[in-house]
Amino acid sequence: MTRKITGKVTWVGKVDWELKRFHGDEFSTHRGSTYNAYLIRDRKTVLIDTVWKPYEQEFVDSLKKVMDLREIDYIVINHGEIDHSGALVALMKEIPDTPIYCTANAVKSLKGHYHKDWNFVEVKTGDTLDIGESKLIFVEARMLHWPDSMFTYMTGENILFSNDAFGQHYATEELFNDRVDTDELYYEAMKYYANILTPFSRFVRNKIHELLDMKLPVDIICTSHGVIWRDNPLQIVNKYLEWANDYQENQITVIYDTMWNGTRKMAEAIAEGIKDADNGIVVKQFNAAKHDKNDIITQVFKSKAILVGSPTINRGIAFSIAGLLEMMKGLGFTNKKGAAFGAYGWSGESTKIITSKLNEAGFSVVNDGIRAMWYPDDRALNECREFGRRFVKEL
Predict the structure, then answer these.
(1) Res. 206 pLDDT band, cuts 50 70 90
(2) What kind of architecture, by CATH, is found in domain 3-243?
(3) Residue 147 in 3-state DSSP?
(4) Which of 15, 234, 323, 387 is most buried, with most CB under 10 Å away?
């Protein structure tokens, strides 16, 4: 399937409705995804990016239906990760000498993935490629989200090919942002940012300001995943600036795992106390063993504070909680507070361990947490409610 974007630009990607996991098993894709590739036909013909490797032959065969592959004058690879470059091996068997324009870091990553010495042309910010009536302007976008990433801007059409930036894992045949459910779109865009781009927020801010300073008119943003932004495309750019700036909403998220429901009862009582103290705060609760980890991380991203609970297990904490805390450490959330809670039988180390892990993850720890021995009785649950009320006042 191909779709016209403008008179010169055609979408030639792949919609993957079946995708449920991405980056191995690290990212959940409940709504599937798309692998967006673009064909530019000016006096020169340019292919921008390809698709994920499992669809490489399908991609090449689809291109052959609309053109002679030898018509492709240039290939632009904005990022070497396999979901973007995966069809290169099959494509280059057909047109082996075609120049591939990419950053110096992308040459390294492409050679590392495919072990091929293709006709690479290294580009850096400000370099241009004349393709006829239009020019392509290359802008390095290091750490958005790999060192090899770049944007490509097309003059005349005023299109920014942004690769991973501004994208979402969101399968749709509608293609454009004004044709899909806005709530679904923005949830998936935030989930993508929270789980992938959060560690690079400083780079996001700097790169967006650099782009704005270039004063390039942007009528369309062509991402590598999800929808193309054609209706007020800068809305997602402005949202990225907001998300990159120590983002938080008036929300507290309570995350726990539980063995015999003692820690769950504590979580519910703490949440009641929070709402008693401030009914305007949004409170969300998640059992980390039963809810999707990336959806939980998205709620952490939205929150101004979190409470993390686990029973003590073998002088440690629950596997699901340990994994989430390790994810939070890697993502490097900023401007967020937290505290720990948990039930225990005899040794009771879990709250200290969680408190230490929250500190390591960059959270401002509000207090030493709260513990309940065995199964919490009414008195213990009242103490949890009071803990929730105090937690709000201490924020």
Answers:
(1) very high
(2) 4-Layer Sandwich (3.60)
(3) coil
(4) 387
